[in-house]
Amino acid sequence: MAKTKEYSNGEVTVVWESEKCIHSAICAKGLPKVFQPRERPWIKIDAGTTEAIVNQVKECPSGALSYYMNAEGDKTSETLETKVEVLENGPLLVYGTLTVTHKDGSSEVKNKTTAFCRCGLSNNKPYCDGAHVREGFKG
Predict the structure, then answer these.
(1) How far is Cα 67 from Cα 76, in angstroms, rounded to an integer?
(2) What pLDDT, on the 0 to 100 scale, is given for residue 78?
(3) Coil, helix or strand for 82?
(4) Measured between alpha carbons, how far is residue 114 from residues 22, 72, 77, 130 in Å?
(5) What CA–CA distance (Å, rounded) separates 75 from 97?
(6) How is the chain split into domains, by residue range?
(7) Which whole number is the average pLDDT over 61-81?
(8) Is the pTM for the entire model greater than 0.90?
(9) What is the pLDDT of residues 89-133, one digit of tens each?
(10) Using the 8-state DSSP alphabet, how is residue 24 labeled?
(11) Of the candidates 62, 108, 56, 110, which has an alpha carbon nearest to the alpha carbon of residue 82?
(12) How far apart are CA 75 and CA 87, in angstroms?
């Protein structure tokens, strides 16, 4: 069953969707005082500034982490620069809002960060599921 949790400091709310997480640890490496995967709760929302937390959430390669601003009318979470990044030995990351059309013709809108499989081993194609780590993919 999909697990979604929210963590708020009053200014921003971070949303974590466990089924999307590929355990890249980018959050924990980038902001270790806030993101502590071995602790419960694992997100220490008061251990960082709102700006630092938002910037780190934007780096999440799977889209498992997202955020929204709590102030009424603040739509900051809806805007994100579109860019593409190739992670060494990992997925192709696309940041921004995009429509993915699948081979069966169905489509879905992805927002924030989308991790596309480059190793060919994912069981969730076209998306990365972390198989590259288990199989030692180099590229």
Answers:
(1) 9
(2) 56
(3) coil
(4) 11, 27, 15, 13
(5) 14
(6) 4-77, 83-135
(7) 77
(8) no
(9) 999 988 888 889 999 999 888 877 889 999 999 999 999 998 998
(10) -
(11) 110
(12) 29
User: What phi and psi values does residue 15 have, to the nearest 5 degrees?
Assistant: -110, 130
Identify which of 16-25, 28-37, 98-107 has the greatest average pLDDT: 28-37
Query: Which tokens is 68 given?
Result: 């929204």
| 132, two tokens | 């590259």
CATH architecture for segment(s) 83-135 = 3-Layer(aba) Sandwich (3.40)
CATH architecture of the region 4-77: 2-Layer Sandwich (3.30)
User: CB atoms < 10 A from the CB of 81, how many?
Assistant: 7
State both tokens at 123: 């069981």
State residue 104's pLDDT score.
Answer: 94
